[in-house]
Amino acid sequence: xxxxxxxxxxxxxxxxxxxxxxxxxxxxxxxxxxxxxxxxxxxxxxxxxxxxxxxxxxxxxxxxxxxxxxxxxxxxxxxxxxxxxxxxxxxxxxxxxxxxxxxxxxxxxxxxxxxxxxxxxxxxxxxxxxxxxxxxxxxxxxxxxxxxxxxxxxxxxxxxxxxxxxxxxxxxxxxxxxxxxxxxxxxxxxxxxxxxxxxxxxxxxxxxxxxxxxxxxxxxxxxxxxxxxxxxxxxxxxxxxxxxxxxxxxxxxxxxxxxxxxxxxxxxxxxxxxxxxxxxxxxxxxxxxxxxxxxxxx
Length: 298
Description:
With 298 residues, this protein is an alpha+beta fold. It is built from 14 helices and seven strands. Helix 1 runs parallel beside helix 7 (170-189) and helix 8 packs across helix 10 (233-247).
């Protein structure tokens, strides 16, 4: 254990004081996450980072990145998730005027409650975030981990992880603390929020292609998509090849990253394009978190 990295944790909304010693594997995951983060310069790359190396160290369903100006105004909000969120859930989370992510971020920064974590499945696990337990529960999340830079001369950033498959504790808060500077710099490097500087695809994706991209984001294989849609895996592959050519990419991961840059997936829910797909979706496998990320990258 003497070879591990050591860090101390300040007291926060849950017991997070004491010394944290990273294992060799955790050190490796952390180093890889930092190295891959240095290359993030677009929303698509941020998405790939969140679904790759960040998932290995801190598995999660949703990563929210909020950047504030010197006066506290919201400059940017990115909500990244490997599976498609219900439109109601997505809107409730990322509304830039009064969304749940923004309110939690302001609650934590204005009350100097960083880091903050809540595990609502545990008795008295809500801490300073207990007021948000009802809303988060209605949206399908029973835990949240929050950290940020605090206020700087140029503003600040806040990062929220929702839906951690393990019960979040001070150890996970420390991992996020180590990543905050790199998340902050990656967020600052993103181009300004505009689409006119991004070359649009030669044509719009068809309804079927949009549906396939939606299932692709859910981590479905060609065979699984074929079963859901009632077509062959070869037909799915042919659709994917046309999607790649349209978007100017070469693989699944880059196709999703490109769609993120063009903001083509914000309200895509494939089972709503195919009313019968909802039942088939429930019957099929639903990979999430790091497992879905590995499927997407394949």
